[in-house]
Write the structure tokens for this entry.
Amino acid sequence: MTVARLPLTAYLLVSGMVLGVAGMLSASPAMAQQGASCPRFGPVEVNVQFQVAKLQRDYTRPLAQLAAMPGRAPGPAGASRGHIMGLAHAKYGEQSQLGALFQPMGDGTVCGAAKTLNVTFGFQERIIFVARELPQGSCIHGEVLNHEMKHIAVDEQLLREFGPTIKRRLEGAISQTRPVRARSQEQALGAIRRPIEATMRQMMQEFGRERERRQAQVDTVAEYERVSRSCNGEINRYIPKGKSRL
């Protein structure tokens, strides 16, 4: 059995915003035919594991450094000129391994079919940042930290809800694949991988859109104003009045 590692798809997000999406590879379909005089290869085993990286906390970065972090969310309308007091950073994605079986056909071609698909999906890195200017143990430090924890809670809830869908959709996609006849194992494997990658790419896009929508419900102007007014205006000791932002 040949095992191919599908490309890692990683998404870097800060405060609920997607920074980027790594590209997915596609093999050329030339000379690859599904089910053309190929033998039966048996059922495909699909295994999905979920990953939630240990939450880290970093209170060492100053306001200016948080504001310059790549992928930082712009925040809701009306809050764009404030300082960044805290960030919830997360990187999520999937990594897959596809096992395939191959049968030489005696005419220089080869038949191939999927045998196993192992997928790991979830959050690969999670860090909460609170600006260094906010003293640890202070009331305002706690308020900002609690706000960032809301972003973490959103991520965990979404993964719980979305997780069962992944295996069902992958099983559906792989059930539609048929043995492939091609000039080489590499060409056959590319044709087998293509619908699986397309399904995973679509699910990652759906996950990202829903995550962005839910995180935006946490980062509202009203929430920013609430935290700014909390602790009897303690935030004004550390940053200019009227310039606070989560």
Remarks:
- The beta strands are 2-5, 9-14, 17-21, 33-34, 45-52, 55-58, 86-104, 110-130, 180-182.
- The first strand starts at residue 2 and ends at 5.
- Residues 2-237 form one domain.
- Residues 2-31 have pLDDT under 50 and may be disordered.
